[in-house]
Amino acid sequence: MDNETILESLEGFIQDQKAEAARLAAxxxxxxxxRKLHRSWAPLLNFCSSIGLLPTEANTxxxxxxxxxxxxxxxxxxxxxxxxxxxxxxxxxxNREPLRIxxxxxxxxNWNQLRNFYRELGDAGAVAELTQDARSISCLVNSDCLRYxxxxxxxxxxxxxxEKTVKxxxxxxxxxxxxxxNVKLAKNRxxxxxxxxxxxxxxxxxxxxxxxxxxxALLPMDKWFARWQLFERPGRSVYIQCSAGDFDYRPFMPLxxxxxxxxxxxFKARLRRDFxx
Length: 277
Prior knowledge:
Elements: H1 3-37, H2 42-50, E1 54-59, H3 67-77, H4 79-94, E2 99-102, H5 108-124, E3 127-132, E4 136-141, H6 146-173, E5 177-186, E6 196-204, E7 207-214, H7 221-231, E8 237-243, E9 256-259, H8 263-274
Parallel strand pairs: 7-8, 8-9
Antiparallel strand pairs: 1-5, 2-4, 3-4, 5-6, 6-7
Helix pairs in contact: 3-4, 3-6, 4-6, 6-8
């Protein structure tokens, strides 16, 4: 490498360092402004600013318990029964086709629960052409509910599971907690441009747990690994990828993969390990 090339490389390095210093200074100013505007965001701001990111939007302090939350909560209470139904509804919704399910092979208890579940969807206005008889149920997802059945149901279900598990653990351990969802994060100015969006973030005492959920059969490993590298900090924070499918989490370790069906058990075990309970 000749001297000219070395000088060019050195100059480029210096310019990059100056740009990063300017970014961090601007970030600190933005964080201080956010602290004044959003006092309830303090745990989220502390964590995100420590890794060079700024929360620009977030929900906290009480869940919107609308029909989408209620339906997702029902699904998460019996995941083995309802998750396959939610996936089938998503496929039929995209194709604008009615979904028909038959009683054959379904236990009387499950059939009654499914009938009540579809009645809940009908009362919420999520499905049309709802017909039920003694042996079958048929419905068509309303067009304005496509986004919910295409994946939002899993985000709302994850939020319910995170809230329930964190509250139970906090009562058991006496640890403080905060819950945030639909969190948008900016990395550079202008701060209204989001670089990341997170489904849920739970702050428990001095630790932070970051969650995202996927409903497809494939997991985007490159994105998952990049998020894990960014948000995982030993002893401080954990990034957990969640899935509507029941994958075996062990082959993916040290990355963390929780299925929605086993979420409560796995997350509570993680909390107890982290806090030595």
